[in-house]
Amino acid sequence: MGRLDGTDFTGRILPLLWRRSIPARKAAGRPPRLTVDAVVAAGIRIADAEGIEAASMARLGAELSVATMTLYTYVPSRDDLVDLMVDEVFVERGLHGPRPEDWREQIRSYADRTFAMYRAHPWLARVSQLRPPIGPGMLAEQEYVLAAVSGLGLPTAQVSRAATAISGWVVAAARQEAESTLLRRATGLSSDEWWLQRGELWEKWFDVEAHPAMTALWNAGGFDRGADEQARDAYEYGLGLLLDGIERSSGSLGFPPPDSSVQ
């Protein structure tokens, strides 16, 4: 997740990500004191309570009462640890289980579980997912959303685009909410309290003539709801429009679908 040097670590991280798919081998002698699962679970506990920055290998060793160097026999690096933590919480969403029949309800279920995941683990907002760990959790998300839109009759090229648009919208909103949670923890201020502290801007520096659209909306009560409520409203509004647009492009709302030759 945090690697920027282009180094390929797939030879060591993929077996760890997919460790539950590999038949367990019994080792001779005493069983190991730790397991990869235990190390990852401890990392998640620390990050949940103290933030992702606190989940260092040294801190993890203290949590598990082992020498820091001992951890490297289970997880080769902190980057690998973060990858494993991210995919583990992805798995915990339970997207492998039963799903509603209606495709929109499937997406709503995916969205609700994604928001719940970020609320439980707000440190996810501090981890880049542009190059995610290719583990069971990440693939379960892709499979779930692709399956939800695959039955709509969209042209093949549009299935992936629709799924990517949906997951991108949902994840961006969930990450924003999680980031708001982290900022509240760090500053002691809610989003609304932060804005109230900047009241002088509107009283002394805001030019109503230079911002007529904002002024008109303000006077009409368009900004009366709290910042977090407005963000949630915007998310719900956008998701509804997105799903309507996907249905319309498939022809399932009674509109003719677009020319399928246009890819």
TrEMBL record:
<dbReference type="InterPro" id="IPR009057">
    <property type="entry name" value="Homeodomain-like_sf"/>
</dbReference>
<feature type="domain" description="HTH tetR-type">
    <location>
        <begin position="33"/>
        <end position="93"/>
    </location>
</feature>
<protein>
    <submittedName>
        <fullName>TetR family transcriptional regulator</fullName>
    </submittedName>
</protein>
<dbReference type="InterPro" id="IPR050109">
    <property type="entry name" value="HTH-type_TetR-like_transc_reg"/>
</dbReference>
<feature type="DNA-binding region" description="H-T-H motif">
    <location>
        <begin position="56"/>
        <end position="75"/>
    </location>
</feature>
<dbReference type="InterPro" id="IPR004111">
    <property type="entry name" value="Repressor_TetR_C"/>
</dbReference>
<dbReference type="GO" id="GO:0000976">
    <property type="term" value="F:transcription cis-regulatory region binding"/>
</dbReference>
<dbReference type="Pfam" id="PF02909">
    <property type="entry name" value="TetR_C_1"/>
</dbReference>
<dbReference type="GO" id="GO:0045892">
    <property type="term" value="P:negative regulation of DNA-templated transcription"/>
</dbReference>
<keyword id="KW-0804">Transcription</keyword>
<keyword id="KW-0805">Transcription regulation</keyword>
<keyword id="KW-0238">DNA-binding</keyword>
<dbReference type="InterPro" id="IPR036271">
    <property type="entry name" value="Tet_transcr_reg_TetR-rel_C_sf"/>
</dbReference>
<dbReference type="InterPro" id="IPR001647">
    <property type="entry name" value="HTH_TetR"/>
</dbReference>
<dbReference type="GO" id="GO:0003700">
    <property type="term" value="F:DNA-binding transcription factor activity"/>
</dbReference>
